[in-house]
Amino acid sequence: xxxxxxxxxxxxxxxxxxxxxxxxxxxxxxxxxxxxxxxxxxxxxxxxxxxxxxxxxxxxxxxxxxxxxxxxxxxxxxxxxxxxxxxxxxxxxxxxxxxxxxxxxxxxxxxxxxxxxxxxxxxxxxxxxxxxxxxxxxxxxxxxxxxxxxxxxxxxxxxxxxxxxxxxxxxxxxxxxxxxxxxxxxxxxxxxxxxxxxx
Length: 199
Known about the structure:
alpha/beta; six-stranded mixed β-sheet; globular
């Protein structure tokens, strides 16, 4: 069976990707399977640049096809913040949410979108990138304890529940990560059949 490395040690992301892979015959490994993987500086200026940096580093170190995502929340009233700095907005998920809600206090426009860029790399070169988005609004207070990150305060368009309240199978069918990954799945299936004999 072919394998591909997802360039993250975030268990939530790995579990989400395993569900998104469904019946695809690919062994998904993560950076947790490569414990000495060096820290990578995400110094890109866009989600796609940061995803590419991580994917290239993982493909080199793990000597295997690798993909990485960079995702975040863009809020209209905050001029697109936190954007590519979403995971570095504060120290913990709770603190990040509290800071976001504080900055939105008193603002009528609570429109936001989640963005996910996925880069696939092999032998230290980016093969392709994909992007997915989901539009929604920021709620006045957190709701639900599912998901992770900003999920409890993001209500996707067309739903009365936040990502923190929606069942995982529903979120995984409409999320920014699911949409980006759907674009990448066919590429992954086709390319791994060709790359699998090289390692």
